[in-house]
Each structure stands twice: as structure tokens, then as C-alpha cells.
Design goal:
Elements lengths: L1 E6 L3 E8 L2 E8 L6 H14 L8 E6 L2 H12 L7 E2 L9 E2 L9 H14 L3 E6 L2 E7 L4 E9 L1 H11 L19 H28 L4 E5 L3 H4 L8 E2 L3 H13 L1
Parallel strand pairs: 1-4, 4-5, 6-9, 7-10, 10-11
Antiparallel strand pairs: 1-2, 2-3, 7-8, 8-9
């Protein structure tokens, strides 16, 4: 059995690969817990699903350094093997045609690996998470860059905390681009604005590269934002977890 753990800024996503089956769940990133608590959560999920096979493989990606060591210790208590940590130094099947590849978020590497496996070269991953990221894979598996903009949740919080009168809205699909009250105006700006920004960035990347790209969407907010973009070809909720599995298999 392989456990794939993706530590994000808002949530920790966990995937259990048992033979050909994938079981997933997520927990909030904050507040941070002790390693023993995380071990108990993982073991509780296994018990709930009736999974009795021993854990012998673990891979972790993290963009939250304060959590990395704690989750690593929790994983060590479950597995007889040292967990694998994701970074550009691993064999990912990609080459990194960018400056300072060590700065790339581990989740973006996993996304790129999974997208390239599914669609081949010339693929863009739009991850609607805490940040909205766009990751580009060109010909021959070259990781060629991307874009980062504030995520929908971050923008919502910034409007609420940075202004005197704007309310803290509940994120939902906007009824119209033309908001009829303050909440509707905020939702329009957040959702249509994010979708429009993503479409524009994709168009500019294609113009600069002189070719078209397949576009894959994932991330916690994909169900709200992706339907409003004009360029998404496929939605893959577990893209990061699948990418972690592929990286582990290449490095096992």
C-alpha cells in the first residue's frame, strides 16, 4: 500500500493506494497537530475503510515547511520504509527549463507529472487552490514555467479584512456576472474575475510559445471556478495525489 500526502496551505490531502483502488480524504492544515495525532487520524481512516494491509510506502509533498517534519514523523510511525519527499532532484520524468527549479512548489511538480502522463506534452495545469497556479509542460516533458495569482479564498478574505463595509460572503456559484447586491457583486468579481484571468494567461502563454495547450483543472475551488473558464478540457480532482504515485513509482 502507498500513502500519498500533499500538505497544502489550506488542507492536507491524503490518498491511500490499495492495489488498484484509491481512497482519499482531507484535513485542515491549521491548527497544527502533534505527530501522534496525525498518525491516529491516518490509522482511523484505514480502520474505517476496512483496510488492513500494512503501509510499506509513503510519499509526501509539502508547501508548508512548519508541517513537513511533523507529518514526516507521523508517516515514519506507519511505514517500515523512509518516506520519500518530493523535490526537483527526484526522477520525475520531466526536465526543468526554468530558473531556480528548487523554488517550485512540490504540488506543482506532482501536478505536472500527472498531467504529462495523462495528456503528453503541451499541457497546462490550473490548480484552483489557496493560490491559483498555472503550470506549463512543453515538448519532451519540459517544465517551462507558469503563473501564480491569489486564490479565490484569499481574495475573499482580503476584501473582508481589508475594507470597512464589504461582508464576508459564502463562496458559491454566482447567479450572474451582473451582481444585484453587494454579495452578488463580490461573487461575480471573485469567480468571473478568476476565470477571466486564467483564460487570459492561457492565451498569452500560447501566443508566446506559438502553440496550443491542453488544459487540466484541479484544486479545492475547481468546482466553483472551472465551469466559468472557456479553456478547461478536463477536470481531475485527484491530480496531485496521482502525480505523487507516479513519482514514487519512478523512484522506488
Amino acid at each position: 500500500m502507498l500513502i500519498a500526502i500533499d500538505i497544502g496551505n489550506s488542507s492536507i490531502n491524503i490518498g491511500f493506494f490499495v492495489n488498484r483502488d484509491l481512497f482519499t480524504f482531507k484535513i485542515d492544515t491549521y491548527p497544527v497537530k502533534a505527530a501522534e495525532e496525525y498518525s491516529g487520524i491516518f490509522e482511523g481512516f484505514l480502520s474505517e475503510k476496512g483496510i488492513e494491509k500494512p503501509v510499506d510506502r509513503v510519499i509526501i509533498s509539502s508547501v508548508v515547511p512548519a508541517h513537513t517534519g511533523i507529518i514526516l514523523n507521523a508517516a515514519r510511525s506507519l511505514s517500515s520504509r523512509e518516506p520519500l519527499m518530493v523535490g526537483p532532484e527526484l526522477d520525475t520524468g520531466l526536465s526543468f527549463d526554468i530558473k531556480r527549479p528548487w523554488e517550485i512548489g512540490a504540488d506543482r511538480i506532482a501536478n505536472a507529472v500527472a498531467a504529462y502522463s495523462l495528456f503528453g506534452a503541451r499541457v497546462l495545469v490550473v490548480d484552483f487552490g489557496t493560490a491559483t497556479t498555472i503550470t506549463a509542460v512543453g515538448d519532451n516533458g519540459r517544465y517551462i514555467g507558469g503563473a501564480i495569482l491569489p486564490g479565490i479564498g484569499l481574495m475573499k478574505e482580503a476584501l473582508f479584512r481589508g475594507t470597512a463595509k464589504l461582508p464576508d460572503v459564502t463562496l458559491a456559484v454566482p447567479k450572474s456576472a451582473l451582481g444585484k447586491d453587494t454579495g452578488g457583486c463580490i461573487l461575480s468579481g471573485l469567480i468571473y474575475g478568476t476565470a477571466g484571468a486564467v483564460d487570459r494567461i492561457i492565451s498569452e502563454i500560447e501566443r508566446e510559445e506559438g502553440c496550443s495547450f491542453k488544459v487540466v483543472a484541479t484544486g479545492g475551488y475547481f468546482s466553483i471556478a472551472a465551469p466559468f473558464t472557456k479553456r478547461v478540457d478536463s477536470i481531475e480532482p485527484n491530480l496531485t495525489i496521482q502525480g505523487l504515485r507516479l513519482i514514487y513509482e519512478r523512484n522506488a
